[in-house]
Amino acid sequence: MAGKPQSKQPRAVAVNILKGGFGKSTTAINLSKELEVRNGPTLLIDMDDNGHTTFNLGHKDKYEGENHMQKILVDGEDPTDYIVPVSGDLDLLPAHDLLEEVEDNLKSAMASSQRLYRNVVDPLLGDRYEYIIVDTPANRGKLNDNALYATKNLIIPLRPESGWESGITQTTDRVIKEAREYFDLDLLALVPTDLEERLDQQTRDRDLLYAINSRDGLAPFVPDFARLTEADWDAIDAKEYDGELPGIRHRGSIDMAHRAQKPLHDHDPECDQLRCYEELAEIVEQGGITR
Question: Are 137 and 175 in contact (CB under 8 A)?
């Protein structure tokens, strides 16, 4: 699954896992903001019909009313007419309540899996925006296919909940492998998020972190902020580990940022977890993880 890291250049990325409630919106929002802070104009596209990214950035009013996603993806209208500002040089293309209707209409459209690329990403990436991040639906379909084709880069968030293993297996088998039959798709990173349990006991956090760090097919995609070696595990079990707690840790300020309808960087610029999103932004900039 590994792709060779590339040089820094404009890039589009999909945040994707075929499982709901695994931190896609939180990851997409805060990654996008860090990319904007580091590089300038960045676009976040919400293609998940639950609209969490749109709500959490204060644009619930765009979720109903005129179906702008139908106009952009099916009718070919100018996406810049429907893009709204978030903060600084970060913009949002909001989700819409009728995305399922757009999904159905795309099934009979010509080049139905290429509409997001042709109508949004291709004309805007490298011209108006340095980076484009897409928050995807948690299910297969034409919207998901559009996100993957348009970005060709993938980040998978993981929460230490039951079902994470089936989520990553389905995403690997039903998304990555199938997509690669038709176009190149690079997995950039696996992102353990919302961790809060101990690691020196048998917890869900430990199970998740140990699994992704010990499996050959997963370990190359674990960012440094979530990486643990065998020596680290020995130190943890001996209660001698003095490194940073791995993964993106649960913080009240992350939830409060959503309620304040702001990215974490704007709500609490001193939050210690911003270092993780900064590293994730660097991975996107370079097109992969380098050790």
Answer: no
